[in-house]
Amino acid sequence: MSAIDRLNNKIIKGKKHSYQELQHTSLYAHNTTSNEFKSLLVNDAESLVVSDSNISKGQDVKGVGEGLQQVLIYGRKPDGTLQPLESSGDRLLVDVLELSHSGPISTSTALSSVQVCGYDHDNTSRFKTLRVNTDGKLHTLNNTNNAGSFGNIINNASLTAGSFSSSVDVSNMNKAYILYEDSSVASMDPVDIQISCDNTNFYQVLNFQPFAGFGALIRESTAYLDLNGITHLRIRNVSPADTYANVKASVVGSA
C-alpha cells in the first residue's frame, strides 16, 4: 500500500507481548511545510496523530550479537532512485568518480564533494584544506631554503699553484652559484671547479677565468651549477707557477 489507510488493524502474526517487552522504535514522517521530520504517535483511540517533537539524538549503543534491531539505510541516486548504502566492516563504502582521460571536467557539479587536506608539520601539526584558484591551480607557498655562506670554500687566504681548497658539503643544494675573487690581477691562469659524490673521488666539472678590469685590484668570476646528486665541491689553482692571493670563494644555493 502506498499510504496508511487502515489504522485499526493490529499485528496478528507472532507472539503477543506486553508493551514493556517490546523494543521501542519511533517512526517519523516528513513535514513538507516546516521541512522537518515529525514523530508519528497513536492516541488512546488508536488513531494516528503527529506530535511536534523532532528527531533527537539518542544514546550510544554497542551492538552485541543480535542485540540491535537492523535498519537498512538508503541513499538517493542522481536519477532519483534509492539504493541501499554499503559498508565494509565498520566503514561506509563510498564510490569515487573516475576521471576521464579525455580532459578536465568542465563543471564542478559532475564531481562528488571531496575535501583534500595536507598536514601542517611546521606550525599547527593539524590537517589543513588545500586551496585552488579560479583556474583550478593549487595555491603554493614557495619556501626557499637557501644554503651556503660567504667564504665557505676559502676565505681571504692564498691558494698556491696546483693546490686545492678544502671541500664543502653541498648535499643540501640542487642548484648553486660559485662566487670567486682574488688579488692576483697579474695572473692569466684559470680556476677549476671539481665535484664529488663521496668526498673522495673528485672530477672537474667547470673551468673559469677570473677577470680583472682596467686598474682593478681584484680578479673575479661567478659560475652556476646543477648539483643534483653531488655531495661535495672544491676549487683548484691550475696555474703552473702563480699563487692566487687573498682568495675568497663561496658556494651558495638552494634545494
Describe this structure in words.
Among the domains are: 19-54, no CATH class; 146-254, Jelly Rolls. The protein has no helices and 17 strands. The chain has strands at 28-31, 36-42, 48-54, 74-76, 82-84, 87-88, 91-92, 117-119, 127-129, 146-159, 168-169, 175-182, 191-196, 203-208, 219-226, 232-237, 244-254. It has a 4-stranded antiparallel beta sheet with strand order 10-17-12-15, with no helix packed on it. The chain has a 4-stranded antiparallel beta sheet with strand order 11-16-13-14, with no helix packed on it. It is rod-shaped and about 120 Å long. It starts with 27 loop residues before the first strand and ends with a strand.
* Top CATH class of the domain at 146-254: Mainly Beta
CATH architecture field of the domain at 146-254: Sandwich
Distance between the termini: 71 Å
Would you count the extended β strands for me? 17
CATH topology of the domain at 146-254: Jelly Rolls
Q: In which order are the strands of the major sheet placed?
A: 10-17-12-15
Q: Average pLDDT value?
A: 77
Morphology call: rod-shaped
For the biggest sheet, the summary is: 4 strands, antiparallel
**In sequence order, what are the helices and strands, one letter per element?**
EEEEEEEEEEEEEEEEE
Rg (CA only): 39 Å
Residue runs with pLDDT of under 50 for 5 or more positions:
1-23
Strand content: 35-45%
How helical, in percent, are the residues? under 10%
- In quaternary terms, these chains amount to single chain
Number of helices: 0
**Helix-strand makeup class:** mainly beta
